Every structure is written in structure tokens, then in C-alpha cells.
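Board notes, transcribed. Complex of a protein with norvaline.
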Amino acid sequence: MNLKGRSFITLLDYTKEEIHYLLKLSAKLKAEKNAGTAHRHLEDKNVCLLFQKDSTRTRCAFESGAYDLGMGVTYLGPSGSQMGKKESIKDTARVLGRMYDGIQFRGYLHADVEQLAEHAGVPVWNGLTDMYHPTQILADFLTIKENFETLKGVHLVYVGDARNNMGNSLMIGAAKLGMHFTGVAPQELWPESSLIEHCEELAKSTGSKINFTEDKMEGVKGADVVYTDVWVSMGEAKDVWRSRIAQLHDYQVDRHMMNNASKKAIFMHCLPAFHGTDTEIGAQIAHEFGSEFSRVKNGEMEVTDEVIESTQSKVFDEAENRLHTIKAVMLATMTNDY
Ligand code: CP
Ligand code: NVA
């Protein structure tokens, strides 16, 4: 398998075999890390991490992953470069591509990361756009494999805003790898029909099944994985909170819902998650909307504190796996000498 020079923008660009290869490489790098075996395969290379939005996991995984691989790192935060304000994406790509061996981009428009990749001349990795979050999916699938030994035939149910970057990307990943995907949400929050149709087409050759329903108890019935994400994503206007809570409060993942899943079901969330009042936004939502929507009165939104803190919850394994999978993406796309 030779992925050298490739960008990693969406899983749609990668074959089933290539995704499996990245997952195997991730597991190998994880084992090496845990055994204390050095893997500084990219010494003398440097990467630039370009963030238009905030991040904890993605930034830290790219940064510590780059260090583990022996690389130098520059972090450019939402206000740390000329990009967008005085310099176009295209010019930024051509400048950074002359100085770095790889570029991570987290931003708003998916077209921006595509444009960077087109003009940088070095691999560009999508660390999240409004449309897709492909490095997260690798971490999620590694976590699922660790729990179920396989991906094929595993039934993943995504509950919540199913047309955000996570809903879209999980559906694509499932379709590519032969997992069953059910999106549980009000119909207006299902992905674009063209993307669903594309995934249904992919699913025909992998044995995956793609379904959507508004019925949460029917949707999670027998699920192996119950997955959710925030109701309001980065970059969305603050004033969507009330209507989104009204649409999704009844889809909060709680014990009752988990009890309808398979006995061995795990709970997953890409994080950050709202499950209490110990965050600014959690406290604010509880204060503003708690009397109108009782489910959010304690700052619990997409998942209850009980579920995310339960033994079924694998959210911190997922978070750790961001490191190993992101390292695999950087390594495989920057060299074939390892
Ligand atoms: N899951 C994820 O991408 O987290 P960050 O926003 O902290 O990077
Ligand atoms: N849908 C979320 C994912 C965060 C990792 C967002 O875009 O904010």
C-alpha cells in the first residue's frame, strides 16, 4: 500500500483497503507507543497545523503525534496567521507548501481544505470542516475494532444532528467498510439526500445497510454502538440553540435508550460533550432553557451524565485513538519508508 503524497480530505477519496490499512498501521503505532518503542520515521520533516476553529483533541493528537514521529510543528490558531484576512487560501497554500512537508487544516468551508490541498503541493489533512471530520472516524473505527474485533456487520446508530460533519462522515465510513448505519433524528436533520444516495450505492458492494428513522427506540434497537455528538456545532450561530434543543431534546441519549441497544453495546461521542453544568455553555443552556426543556436543566444535552460516565462509554478510548490514527495518516501520506 503506497499512500505517499496523498491528502486526507474525506473518506470518500479512500478505498476500503486503504482505510483498513490506515487502521492496521494505527494499531501498530499504538502498540509501539505502549511498548515504548521509538518510531521517529519522519525526522527532519515539519508540519503546520492551521486552525480556524478551536480544538483540544485534534490539535494535541497532530502535535504530539508529530513529535513522536520526530517532526517539528508550527501551530497557527484562529487568529494566528494572515489567512482569510489579508491572504487567500490559495496563496497561503503555496506559501506553507514551500516551508512544510504536510499541513493540517481545521475550518469552516469544505471547499477551503480542498483548495489548500490543490495548491499546497504537500499532503493536506482535514482536521474538521463543516461537512466532514475524517480523522475522527479512523479513531472511532479503531475503537470499535478494539471492542468487537471486526467492523463488518457492526451496527452503529448515530443519534442527534445527523447532517453535521460527524453524521456525514460516520455514514460514509460505515458504507465503505460494510457496517450498518442508522441515523436517528428528526427528518430535517438527516444528511443531504445526494450524500445518502451515494452511500447507499457504496453500501451495495460492501454489504452495509443505511437507514434513517425519527423513532429513537426503534432506531437504537439491538445497536452495537450508540453514537452522538453536540446539537450545535462550531461555527453555527448562537441563536440556533433554542430551536435545536426543541428539535433534539427528546433524542438525548439516556439509560432508557441504551437499554434498548444490544447487551454488549458501547456508547461513543467524538467529544467535547455537554453532560453537566461544569462548562460555560452547559451552565448557560441550563439557566436559559432548563425550565422550558427539563432534560437540559442540569446542563445535560446530547447525552446524560449517567450514560457518558457508565462502563459502556468508550469516549476516552476514542479520544486516545485520535493520536494513534492521526499518526498513521501523517506517516502513511508523508513517506513509504517505515
Ligand atoms: N473530537 C474533536 O475533534 O475534538 P476537538 O474539537 O477537541 O479537536
Ligand atoms: N460536530 C462537532 C464536532 C466536534 C469535534 C463540531 O463541528 O463542532
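The beta strands are 46-51, 72-76, 102-106, 124-126, 155-159, 180-184, 210-213, 225-228, 266-269. The CA atoms of residues 4 and 336 lie 6 Å apart.
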